[in-house]
Specification:
CATH architecture of the largest domain: 2-Layer Sandwich
Number of strands: 10
Shape: globular
Structural class: alpha+beta
CATH superfamily of the largest domain: SP0830-like domains
Strand order of the largest sheet: 4-5-1-6
CATH topology of the largest domain: Alpha-Beta Plaits
Largest sheet: 4 strands, antiparallel
Helix content: 25-40%
Radius of gyration: 16 Å
Strand content: 25-35%
Distance between the termini: 15 Å
Length: 175
């Protein structure tokens, strides 16, 4: 048995309805996963499952989510080992935990697409690709940056963002 982290790209079903974490844990149980637990209310799921490839879990979770909630949502799955490796590679540890964001990618991000984001950066912002994931130090509130709105699936590929505080919180849940 292994521990996995699943990150939902969105938990918004309609403008006035979101998936609550209790329902997300129930979905994981229905799919046969053990000890599902969540962190904050933004689609962070930790669970135990038999040895499976993360992509197989992504497919099962996405299909189960769509069947249960009527909407497709991209879900990124990482094993506990790959999550801890991601934690150890933060290139911006000197940044603020709520301003350093990693976009965890399904497939490695294309460096040319990241290069195209650089004109949107402001003074103090930093960006790096590590292990195929995109790290950004917004050096301020991400919501006030033009860069944030450019980090779309259409522009850079399937992935989802988590701030450093959440990344660390998930790591603590699997230790």
């Amino acid at each position: 048995m292994s521990t996995f982290i699943a990150l939902l790209h969105s938990i918004v079903l309609t403008p006035d309805r979101r998936v609550i974490m209790e329902d997300l844990r129930a979905l994981a149980k229905e799919l046969g996963y053990r000890e599902p637990r969540t962190l904050v209310s933004t689609g962070n799921l930790v669970f135990e499952a038999d040895e499976m490839r993360p992509h197989e879990l992504e497919v099962a979770l996405e299909e189960g989510f769509e069947e249960k909630f009527g909407k497709h949502v991209d879900i990124i799955v990482r094993s506990d080992c790959t999550w801890m490796a991601l934690c150890s590679t933060n290139p911006f540890r000197d940044g603020s935990g709520d301003q350093v964001i990693v976009r965890v990618m399904r497939l490695p991000v294309d460096p040319e697409k990241v290069e195209a984001l650089k004109p949107l950066m402001t003074e103090g912002q930093r960006i790096a690709i590590v292990g195929g994931d995109l790290w950004i130090d917004f050096a301020g509130k991400p919501s006030q940056s033009k860069l944030l709105s450019a980090l779309t699936t259409k522009r850079i590929g399937i992935g989802t963002m988590r701030n450093w505080n959440t990344v660390c919180g998930l790591a603590q849940m699997i230790m």
